[in-house]
Amino acid sequence: MKNIILKITILVLACSVNVDIFCQASDDVAKAVAFEKLAMFISWPPAALNNDSSGMFIIAVLNNKPFGKNLEEVYKTHQIKNKNVQVVYFDKIKELGKCDLLFISNSSTDELKIILSSIHGKPILTIADKEGFAEAGCFINLYEFESKLRFEINQKGMQDAGFKIDYRLLRVSKVLNPVIE
Amino acid sequence: MKWTILLLITLILGLLNSTVFAQEHDTLKTEDLFQMSLEEFMNVNIVTSSKKEEKILETPANVNVITAEEIQTLNFNTLEQLLEYAVGMSSVNGEGNFFTATSIRGNTVVNYNVNTLFLFDGIPLYNPFNGSFELNIIPLNAIERIEIVKGSNSELYGTNAVSAVINIISKKAKNGVDESQLRMKYGSKQTMYAQGNLIKSYHKLQVRLFTDVNTSKGEDLTINDELGHTETYRDYYKGANLVAKLDYKDFSFHFQYYNRQQPNLKTRGFDYNLYILNSDTFKIVVPERHDEFGVVTSLEFNHKLSEKVQLHMSTNYWYWDLRKNEYAGYWDYNSKSFFNEAELTIKPVPWISNIIGISSNHMFAQRYESEINTFDVGKDHKWTTDAAVYLNGTIDIIKSLKFSYGGRYYMSSYKDTTLTNLSPRFALVYNVFKNTYLKVIYGKSFRVPTYFEKEVASSKIKGNPNLKPENSSSLDLVIATNYKGVQINLDFFNLDIQNQIGRHFIDIANTISQNYNTSGKSVYNGFEIDTKFRLMNKLNGFAGYSYVNGKNVQKDSTTNLKFTYHNMVNFGCNYQLFKSISVSTSLKYLDKWGEAKSYVLWNGGLNIGLTADSKFELELKVDNILKTNVSLPEISRDRPQVQTIPVTNIRKVFVGISCSF
Question: pTM above 0.90?
Answer without folding.
Answer: no
